[in-house]
């Protein structure tokens, strides 16, 4: 059985700490005004405290804390102001460690969960208050202990990343994660110890072929399932004996646990099925003996509701106009070019923030293009056309960031990048752009058609661009290429006809005249401007562009170019239709109706409609001629009427 791994300081690591803490860093009292801090100090220094005093900390602990500060300052993942604020905590931290852990020489000696509880209790005794989020009002005390502990554990842990209980996907070659999010850890600590090696082996494969988000979903699915199984069978070390009954019990619990999680409920089951399928195909010794398709059935998966037009969260035209009028007030102003590109391209926020300043713009004879990689569908060197105005905005950002960038602060040559701080060398978080837009909407009262302050979402710009391209008449395949969709089904989600677009298209299509048949059967010309009801406009739009043939229960809305086997009355060409002179009145009535339809069609210029009904008329008249001659119409003939089964077969075999 696996045991909890706890790293310990090695001679090599201790020597590295000692070598780092040489010269000025060896001092126990750092003065922030010293020239050594010039590269870390901001132009404006607002804190009154100008020293960081480590002298009260225990010897081993002191070295680790100083090493944490120096290392993170030098890699620009800790601001000097934050370091000074942390320094205020040292007196109480030293007193706490002397009282609670007088013999420890390293942070790795702590059991951090218990230590955090005792640390919080100590601070509350000292008069610290708890806020509404159940955290200390001065949260830098908690943050300091957690960060130093985690930093030193990672520093001393020399194992391969896959052996650890918490994986940092940034350290795994080939792992796919989004730079604009602060999500990159996969923790196996919630997986029961007997099953942890199995989960790690499986995720080791997945992390190389799936995104971080998918791997996090897989891990959550495994945690739920394996924790349930471990609780039911504490002695199990594998899943060999897993049965359908166990799955049924799990599903009964799972439905209750995930109540209200429509999307996650489905995704976790898919992940579980993929897990069981893979470990069986790969021959894992822990795999169930019963095939996975006999454990998890198709009907176990809930049917997801299909997305409707209302699920396409595009931004209304009125809101876009208000945004354009107030965009210059967006703060911080460096987010303005990001929003401009979201609006102009419809790319995902992760793809916009992944642009490189050295290759994001291209000029051809046709004009400017924005170039970049689409991460989700792995479309590399993708490009879309942009206007001269948008290109000017991008070029200004390129010029500015290129001047400020160095191999240290911007190693990937990102167009939108943090040049200092914890995210140095990485783009800003996409969530911050959304929050800035929401603040702008509240500040400038950007409202929707109902007068409500609009809640912006970064992905809504993508939906808006897709709907816009389709409503402007772009070919669906071209829209698919623009949006870098893996399949046309994704693009079809944007095929939403806006009310204003429908009216314009309808008026354009009917500019040569629109007719409606009055109760007497006569065509009456209609002026499109007289129709105000949008539902009627939609109906007339359909009537003009589709066949709109009346049936006993409604209208057939088959497109013109699609052949209908039923429109021309299939009975008329069926060999089994048998009709006699008794039906002459019915045929004469049908002929009169078809002639009337043909006349209406000619009046409206419905050529295809007229041609099809003329064909139908010919068939009616041909049969009527036969009936008026006193004969029976039946293509199958006497043999088809009088013989059945073996008799018909014998007749066919008899020579004529």
UniProtKB/TrEMBL annotation:
Keywords: DNA recombination, DNA-binding. Residues 310-507 form the Tyr recombinase domain. InterPro entries: DNA_brk_join_enz, Integrase-like_cat_sf, Integrase_catalytic, Tyrosine_recombinase_XerCD. PROSITE patterns: TYR_RECOMBINASE. GO terms for molecular function: DNA binding. Gene3D superfamilies: Intergrase catalytic core (1.10.443.10). Transmembrane segments: none annotated. GO terms for biological process: DNA integration; DNA recombination. Belongs to the 'phage' integrase family. This is Integrase. It comes from Pelotomaculum thermopropionicum (strain DSM 13744 / JCM 10971 / SI). The lineage of its organism: Bacteria, Bacillati, Bacillota, Clostridia, Eubacteriales.
